[in-house]
Design goal:
The protein is of the alpha+beta class and about 575 residues long. It folds into two domains: about 260 residues, no CATH class; about 220 residues, Serum Albumin, Chain A, Domain 1, CATH 1.10.246. The protein is about 35% helix and about 15% strand. Strand 3 and strand 4 form a beta hairpin. Helix 2 packs antiparallel against helix 3, helix 6 packs antiparallel against helix 9 and helix 13 crosses helix 17. Pfam families: G_glu_transpept. Belongs to the gamma-glutamyltransferase family.
Length: about 575
């Protein structure tokens, strides 16, 4: 017989072994043993965000008679306060809205453009080969606030002052900082604290707030209050715009009052690909949404009936499809006002068939070339909302690299984004820097319909992870039979090192990271096929989702890797 210490050691080894295939949640009596929680189910309304306070605010707005769009704006404004590590008034926004009245999807591109006074020649004159991550140079026009008002004008019900009131109250009274946000806040501060006004706004005690500590942002409360009372023009043409322009000039930046005053968002038509009776919808470039559609189209070209989540054939094919899609992403995705990305061709079945033939089922490719017939790290928030009338919102918003550029205009309570970092400085490319141009964007909302009816509003925040995860979530549900929560809890696949819209080219095949849950046998087989496996923590994204069934019942799911919550009523 084993001694007690040896018995405990053996038990620990067994548990550790089990944890490699399931998330140590095997005490659950229903559902999959690895699921972190059950789905949230309700009939009148639903909100899923990356912070419980924001989800609760969205529900409060719905209960007051607000639309799904009102709830989404209210939640986004609260997240700008409670999760400044992922979003804010200085960033951009994209949304897909299902409008039950018109029974169609509406897409909004609320991303900003580069300063008109900054040229490629000037950037080259400064000896740059890439736009820096921080400081004044990567700052582009913040589009989120205009996005709020565009959404509200088209689909809002409550006055904007009521929609923004909860965020204003929390900014004045304070809120307790949650665990993951406290962690990222401290990490961001290491890089951003040298920039003027950052410490005064986000480190009032001389350090970043710790988990559970109360943080107040009175400057942000004043800014939101002005916007609520005076409208979007206060931000783009009024006193707020003047403060931003003055601050940027003091920092030798190029973003001007005229850049802000001339900003506008665009309503765009979402594009889609069909998969097993379901249709995945994304927004066209300057974002990377169509990469998810390209991956899905390529996967459809393979015999997948025997695939399982842990099947090396599935993982290998998925990674190679991602590499192919990202080659096009690097070369063709850009602001459509400057470059005519061949969207229709790239997401077509015929193009996917050609590209799929390049995949060797037994060997990982080191590189792929673009088809001559055709002409990684970011922080974001994603949220979804739904109301009693069947309207659903898929919304994503970000400052790009964590908290943004570090440029913190005096007295406003927020940081300007550094999205301009994603321009290429190589002349003649689709995404080459130009004045007044939208940079390539990573943030993408997703939506799934079934039989021309709304089925699911969802997204997965996290830089280049997003299109990969959009496809995996869809595969988890439709191919592998997961429910809404399980689809997010399933372990994820992440490939990094692809060619980039900023000019970098893949020549070594990149690296593959697999979350805990994939077997040792599968990892070994992938290594045999030439994949470079690399351990990774924290880069697998953050998922939120709302699904609507045929009876009009909502199901909500929230990411177990984040601080968030899905709430319904």
């Amino acid at each position: 017989m084993l001694s007690l210490p040896n018995q405990l050691t053996k038990l620990f080894i067994i548990l550790a072994s089990w944890s490699s295939t399931m998330a140590l949640a095997f005490d659950r009596i229903t559902g999959s043993p690895f699921a972190s929680r059950s789905e949230v189910i309700a009939t009148q309304g639903m909100a899923a965000t990356s912070q419980p306070i924001a989800s609760q605010v969205a529900i409060d707005i719905l209960k007051k008679g607000g639309s799904a769009v009102d709830a989404a704006i209210a939640a986004n404004a609260v997240l700008a306060l409670v999760e400044p590590t992922g979003c804010g008034l200085g960033g951009d926004l994209y949304a897909i809205v299902w409008d039950q009245k018109s029974r169609k999807l509406h897409g909004l591109n609320a991303s900003g453009r580069s300063p008109k006074s900054l040229t490629l020649t000037e950037l080259k004159k400064q000896g740059l080969t890439k736009i820096p991550s921080f400081g004044p140079l990567p700052v582009s026009v913040p589009g989120a606030v205009d996005g709020w008002f565009e959404l509200h004008k088209k689909f809002g019900r409550l006055p904007m002052k009521d929609v923004l009131a909860p965020a204003i109250d929390y900014a004045r009274q304070g809120f307790p900082v949650s665990e993951l946000i406290a962690y990222y806040w401290e990490r961001n501060a290491r890089y951003l604290k040298p920039y003027p006004n950052f410490k005064e706004t986000f480190m009032p005690e001389g350090r970043t707030p710790r988990k559970g500590e109360i943080f107040k942002n009175p400057d942000l409360a004043k800014t939101l209050d002005l916007i609520a009372k005076k409208g979007r023009d206060e931000f783009y043409k009024g006193g707020i715009a003047k403060i931003i322009a003055r601050y940027m000039k003091e920092q030798d930046g190029y973003l001007s009052y005229d850049d802000l005053a001339n900003h506008s968002s665009d309503w765009v038509e979402p594009v889609s690909v069909e998969y097993r009776g379901f249709r995945l919808w994304e927004l066209p470039p300057n974002g990377q949404g169509i990469a998810a559609l390209q991956i899905l189209q390529i996967l459809k070209q393979f015999d997948s009936k025997d695939w399982s989540l842990d099947d090396p054939n599935y993982i290998h094919t998925f990674v190679e499809a991602k590499k192919l899609a990202f080659e096009d992403r690097a070369r063709y995705y850009a602001d459509l006002d400057f470059y005519k990305t061949p969207v229709k061709t790239l997401i077509s079945e015929s193009y996917a068939k050609r590209r799929a033939k390049l995949i060797d089922p037994n060997r990982a490719a080191k590189s792929f070339k673009p088809d001559p017939k055709v002409l990684e790290e970011g922080d974001t928030i994603y949220l979804s909302t739904a109301d009693r009338d069947g309207n659903m919102v898929s919304l994503i918003q970000s400052n790009y690299r964590g908290m943004g550029s570090g440029m913190t205009p005096t007295g406003l309570g927020f940081i300007l984004q550094d999205r301009g970092e994603l321009f290429s400085l190589n002349e003649g490319e689709a995404n080459t820097y130009a004045p007044g141009k939208r940079p390539f964007h990573t943030i993408i909302p997703a939506f799934i319909t079934k039989n021309n009816k709304p089925f699911m509003a969802y997204g997965v925040m996290g830089g280049a992870t997003q299109p990969q995860a959009h496809v995996q979530i869809m595969m988890n549900m439709i191919h592998f039979g997961a429910n809404l929560q399980e689809a997010g809890d399933f372990p994820r696949i992440l490939h990094r090192g692809s060619s980039q819209p900023t000019g970098e080219r893949m020549d070594d095949g990149g690296v593959v990271s697999l979350e805990s849950g994939f077997s040792a046998e599968t990892r070994r087989e992938l290594s045999k096929r030439g994949h470079q496996l690399q351990w990774n923590v924290g880069s697998f994204g953050g998922y939120q989702a709302i699904m609507r069934d045929d009876n009009g019942v909502y199901y909500g799911a929230s990411e177990s890797r984040k601080d968030g919550a899905a709430i319904g009523y």
